Fold this sequence. Notes:
By secondary structure, this protein is an alpha+beta fold. It is built from eleven helices and 15 strands.
Amino acid sequence: MKKLWLLLILPVILNSCGTDPNEIENEELEDNFKVSGLIEGASNTTLYVEALSQNGAIQVATGKTDAKGNFELKGNIPGMGLYQLRVGEAQDKAIPLTLVPKDHVKINSAFNEFTVKPNVSNTSWSPVMNRYLEMFATFTEAQQGLSAMQNQMSQDEMMEKYAELRKPIDEFCAKEMSKDPGNPFNIVLSTSLSPTSGFKYWNPEYLDVLKVVAEEYLQKYEGNPVAAAMDNQVYQIEMAYQEYQNSASGGKTAPEISLKNPKGNTLKLSSLKGKYVLIDFWASWCGPCRKENPNVVRLYKKYKDNGFTIFSVSLDQDPQAWKAAIEADGLEWPNHVSDLLGWNSSMPALYGFNGIPHTVLIDKEGKIIETGLRGPTLEQKLVELFGK
């Protein structure tokens, strides 16, 4: 389970700062925002305001605190978007800033509680940010306790407990977003209402809240890439939820998967119609997946001449690790795909799973026969289908 607010941000929004990051660094632009204040216990420490992207953090402004921890940073941003203020060199000593041009952010905090109680003020989004970070810290602490008990519970029990822990922060986000849909900090709040762990424990009422925010962003921040990204993300969630509803039970058509194979060519699940297909969601870094692979390989060899094949969907991010695992484990079937987005892939939401390995067995028409088959249960189902 993810523990930092930064890891929960939607990747499409992270990648939308509104301009080429190199332009931020290379052009002499007039300052249009300021962050100033006091961080006690952080004397003579370098501070960074950074734009967040999938390619890393891009410095927008930098400076040092004085001996007492006072500071003032100025810089230029292309428009409303997601940034962060980082204290020192530690990557986790950072808070999100949803800056808007002409913002003058004021901070009065202490180094040892900076990420929990930054005491931000002087912007429209400061109050909700302060409350959210406190609640998120409480949730993270409780989540760590839950993680320590993971060997004592089933995956479903874990997810039920996780959803219960998230409920207060989710309800807070839904309330604040509904009250002020154009608030810049909704970029961060929206992550709590997004189905990052699939749709099984997700409240579909949150889709209505997300739609209202997306519509308001398009009007209030017209032409801003963040607004367009928010609108696109909400559309994708809506489509994925419809697909999930259609495929939630056996006999429904499996949602289409159209992703790149290791050679960069697009491969579609629908191209395998006419065969029984085991859709296998896995990753090179997943120990249980790698442990199950020999069994999958054995069953593929046994039944491939009976019209059975595998469609492997990887949740990897490193293409080399993905390709190396395919070769090392002898996954000899040709149907391997990935969007290389890890858990930020749309696949968990589309197919309603929150852990791997996860399998979906479909028939020759693309209808779902059963899900979650592995080990002896997978073999028994194939025996039922092929009679040997």
